Amino acid sequence: MTALQRFSDKVAIVTGAASGIGQATVLRLLAEGAHVVGVDTSAEGLAQTADRARDASEGDNRAAPSLLRTVACSVADESAVKALVAGVLEKEGRLDVLVNMAGILRSEPTTSTSLDLFQSVLNVNLIGTFLCCREALPALLETRGCIVNAASTSAQFGHPYMAAYAASKGGVFALTRTLAWEYLRQGVRVNAVAPGGILTPMVAAQGERMGEFDMSLFGHLSRPDGVFGAPESVAAVIAMLASEDGAHMTGEVVKVDGGVHN
Ligand SMILES: NC(=O)c1ccc[n+]([C@@H]2O[C@H](COP(=O)([O-])OP(=O)(O)OC[C@H]3O[C@@H](n4cnc5c(N)ncnc54)[C@H](O)[C@@H]3O)[C@@H](O)[C@H]2O)c1
Q1: CATH code of 161's domain
Q2: What average pLDDT does range 71-92 have in this prediction?
Q3: Is the C-beta atom of 102 inside 6 A of ligand 1?
Q4: Which of 84, 116, 142, 216 fits a 20 to 30 Å CA distance from 55?
């Protein structure tokens, strides 16, 4: 997939590893020599990621599946996240990169958005990102490592019917910039990607519901040519931000949206 080997001897945690952008990031980091701990609530999806890693490694030792370990847990579960990081330090011995891609999207008109729905989205997208950052930071301070979070173009531009989602991603945006400042002098970089229109199961599920919404409000949210981005395009940007190539970047929220929000 790539001749780059920017993560040899590095250990990365990738959340949301069972699907979409998180899965593509696992495969990308493995191909570049990382030891990856893939985290997701979906054990079945994690098994598929491991299969894809095995397929990718056939004839290419750089993406050896033995460098992938998977952990089924929720990023919103504080004790599970503590155990996750403790397990990485025990088994892999260090932590260099945290990629927070776990996320959920629940669309509703705001007037019918229940408190439960709003809180459940914040719990995964924002609180889960916070918990993973908080628990990983002591280990990242040891290695002068880095974090890449999943923001969204909805945080900067607003997306109709996604009040909970956009608010959670606005929180991730602010968290990213805050941690970048807080740990700047100690050498931990914190960046985010803001994907838009990347064809993953999350976006496909959203697409199936579009008939329920007032489409005239979505004018600026998709490309006129109808082209979606691939998860691998975002994974490539994440890998750059997490590598030495991104050494002079921190506090950035990098749009990967095919130009829709220019
Ligand atoms: N696809 C896009 O266009 C797009 C746009 C903006 C932002 N994003 C963000 O990028 C990230 C990845 O999205 P995707 O499109 O690949 O979605 P996806 O649905 O394909 O993957 C998300 C993964 O997160 C996992 N997950 C959900 N809740 C979890 C939890 N509590 N703990 C651990 N894992 C959990 C899911 O099981 C799934 O495997 C998300 O944070 C999403 O909000 C995506």
Answers
A1: 3.40.50.720
A2: 98
A3: yes
A4: 84
